[in-house]
Amino acid sequence: MGKYLSERSLENLKKYAYRGADKSLVSRYILNPWWNWLVTLWPLTVAPNAITLTGLSIVFFNFLTLVYYDPLYLTEKDVGDSRPHGPPQWVYFTWAIGLFVYQSLDAIDGKQARRTGMAGPLGEMFDHGCDALNTTLEVILASRALGLGRSWWTVASEIFTLANFYLTTWEEYHTGVLFLGYFSGPVEGILIIVTIYIVTGFCGTLFWETKFWTLLKLDHVYPFTRLPNLPLNESFMVFAALGLGINILHAYLNVYTSRTSEKVIRAHTKDTNPLTLLLPFLAPTVIQIAWLSHPAMNHSAIIHSALFVPFLCAWGLQFAHQVGRMILAHVTLGSEPFPRWDWVWAWSVVGAVDANLPRIFGRAPIIQTNTLNTTVFVWLTLAVSFFNYGRFVYLVIYDITEHMGIACLTVRKKDDHGHWVRPEKSS
Fold this sequence. Notes:
One of its GO terms (biological process) is phospholipid biosynthetic process. The chain is about 60% helix and about 0% strand.
């Protein structure tokens, strides 16, 4: 038995086999030839997880450029400060390059795994873990590029993005197949965000305040005069909401088909109503919204303060832990339980209840009595979320590598005598 995984879970890892289906025409005819060429540039001595981690590191560097060039976004802004806020426009081009490189490296890590004979459940978990972390970082960056800033639109963007990721993982848990449709977040969604960065680099964030019908010169043409003339950034959010709705329907139909077919139904999901497993996403989302929507008292609400970014990061780390456990339940064939609850949510529950005491009981908060106390509590939540997720990652990687005799970031396996060797190239 491992430090985190049971003996049964460790044994089931050896039975697991990845299955995927990508219907994207962009992937098939444009990106896949590029990915097939790109992977040949990597030596067989480079581990696939090292490629994945390299991609995430580039995205994290993009985030650091936001912190460096736009420090006021992560601090309290002076209302009387007339200086222009935001990073210089050329920075957005680096974000576009960084995200495209991330997508490319994320796509070829599996190809590299097959080239080096390192394909397995650890790679899938590592890949999904990096994707989960990238999700929140890109929400922060893309919202800044769209000029949404600290607003409920950015919160909506976080919810839409995490919901799409959760649905895909939930679908894979029930069907055993990672489905990517004709339009998916990892392919077309990322390319759209890359385009947003490029446009912002040329035109600046104010461009996204342009009204949609006005840009198309249809604002005086019937029937468009009867429709809301939303800014481009808000129109993009409406588009994202429609995409989420389509993804919900698509995922549910795939799960329904799986459960009604005896050939593909998975034993560990047979007696479970799949819709109930959507509640573990809805519950923490409601908690976070409740915390953010607390009535402002003698200090700024979190959503309009310097605490907004660390709040989103804590939320993203809690989500990454949640979907990490979902993938673990998937690759262990149900030996590990589906994450219906996470103890770290208790921190957010305390924060939400405490902040809403004036609304619930008509009394002042106990913990978040002023800006300083709120700041300490939010940053403490971020630290606890980071520790919780980091501990999970370390223990799971340790258990899998020890049990399967493989390395995480190098191309090595243990032979029957316990010696580290290079695995044979996979066909």
